[in-house]
Amino acid sequence: MPILSLLYDRIRTEEKLIINTAEKKGIELRPIDVKDLHLVITDPNKDKEIFGDIAIERCVSYFRGLHLTAILEGKGIRVINPYSIMSICGNKMLTSILLAKNGIPTPKTIIAFTKEEALKAIEEIGFPAVIKPVFGSWGRLIAQVKDKDIAQVILEHREEINNPLYQIYYIQEMIERPPRDIRCIVIDNEIIASIYRYSSPEDWRTNIARGGRAEVCNLTEDMKEIILKTSEIIGGGVLGIDAMESKNGIVIHEVNATVEFKGAMSATGIDIPGKIIEYALKLAKK
Predict the structure, then answer these.
(1) Tens of pLDDT along 53-62?
(2) Which Pfam families does the entry link to (predicted)?
(3) Total structural domains in the chain?
């Protein structure tokens, strides 16, 4: 039987579920707190035995998980998800470029590198617009820009943050949609679960982490086609694909490579951690 490892820097509900599911199935899964690691990258064979046959990367820190994945792949260890997927999904700009290049419907997006050009971009898109950091999750530092005065305040605040990543201005049109979006859990290019995520009364964002609620979403065939095409161009793996319902059909606005799934699991009753483990075992046997 293959040996699995689960890499984390914080144990959330999802990590507990994966660990408990492996235990119930009698599968050896080694939980590894990556904060306790130091790894020799100039010796490809050193430390390999720690991680088993397949490593499931579940770090909350995107940059920590990304670099760890690169190190393990350098040692010949397969990781879910691989670096190629992590690097795209963790950067909203790279995701948008790939979606547009492959004809996937996605919100109009403009990138600027100065406050002055960002303001021009927002005016080109029109109010209201949305400004996001290129990295990040849980809806943090995402702002709805309703007019020029608000735009100037947000951009000035960004300029004062001493972080070059926040001087890459990722600006999108505000999609006219119901007060919800769609989250699909896709594993190995198969849609496992799909839910609506409704925003809380106090917030326009639909993140479950911000108090949103989940309901089962029955996808149409057209929706399924777009979701599966998105998974295919990203590279498969274990993904959370997020879509919004526009007047012209769904648009894909984000793809998550370290997806939180407790909301989808609670709403649908589907054994998502079991599916992740099955996928890991399948990869280990190849």
Answers:
(1) 999 999 999 9
(2) LysX_preATP_grasp (PF22626), RimK (PF08443)
(3) 3
Confidence of residue 206 (pLDDT cuts 50, 70, 90): low
**Contact indicator for 268, 279 with CB cutoff of 8 Å:** no
Whole-angstrom CA distances from 108 to 5, 33, 104, 174, 245 are 39, 39, 12, 9, 14
DSSP 8-state secondary structure symbol assigned to residue 85:
H
Q: Which structural domain range is residue 65 located in?
A: 4-80
Quick one: 17 and 30 in the same domain?
Answer: yes
Same domain, residue pair 180 and 160 = no
Length of the chain, in residues: 286
Q: What is the C-alpha separation between 176 and 189, in angstroms, rounded?
A: 29
CB 254 within 8 A of CB 174: no
